[in-house]
Amino acid sequence: MSAPTTGDVRAALRDAVSPALRAPSEHNAQPWHWVLADDHLDLEVDTTRRMPFTDERGHGVLLGCGCVLHHLRIALADHGWHADVRHQPDGPDARALARVRIRPAAGAPDPRTRRLADAMERRRTDRRRFSAQAVPTEMLQALGDAARPFGGVLHLTTGGQRAVVADAMREAAERQREQPGYPAELERWTHRYAGAHDGIPAGARLEEPPPSYRDLVLRWFPRGTLRQPHAGADHQDASALTILTAVDESPDSVLRAGEALSAVLLEATTHGLATTPITQVLEVAETRDRLRYLVGHHPPVVALRIGWPEPFAEPLRPTPRRPLDQVLTEVG
User: Fold this and answer.
1) What is the pLDDT of the chain when averaged over all its residues?
2) Distance from C-alpha of 294 to C-alpha of 72, rounded to nearest angstrom
3) Which H or E run includes 117?
């Protein structure tokens, strides 16, 4: 096989960006921007999409950018390319979060890569109640395995730990609602106008008006049922409640944790599982400290509900994504 030309490389990188845009981000803000050159692709933060009241530390932006970077890896692998990713390159382009170069893969894409690529189109954030069927231990182990190459560790909470996390979620929702600037920011991103290519437009919601975050937590984890999540009662949500941690709180580690989150979400989708990433509980210092106490010295970056959809649940509508020309700049 002849060596790929500059045109081949450039076209492959450009083509991989489009499917990668299905990556999740907080409130579907899509906080990423790509810069394409002849031999590499840079990932940058779109600072106009930062939510200073919802995401005060900027971790949500980094998680979203990590998710889109992992989606890009999968899209490239599905088309026979190996991605060499360098996080936070040095030199005059240091503002980039990551630089991606590619080379032909050694062999044809394996079946697992094909499944993950297909999952990018099918994955949805599901905020509904999940079924009373428990997630098998071996599936949770597979999700944990998916996170490890990116420094992520997926912690399963059980019994009293589960109750602590759910209580922290409710408290965080109440505290953030009282923070100046937060209600307006939430309204902006979750009540997008018709035809918007970002946020949560009215047409993508299942309920009008949408339930509050606190009400969602009560729906997922009714009081008095938290210590025995797999009792099997018809009304009970038996989802696994997990916490994903990063190596540390450096931007590079949080970005890689976003890649780990994407890997977990896509792996879950290949098994038919539904997922809900939850970051609000980590945006309030007091509730964040409680979760950190549960998982040890590594910082938690996202809580994640994982479960089976209710039988005969309606398919979720996809949330919109910005077109390629709004997220990609070509240079050179």
Assistant:
1) 90
2) 32
3) helix 111-122
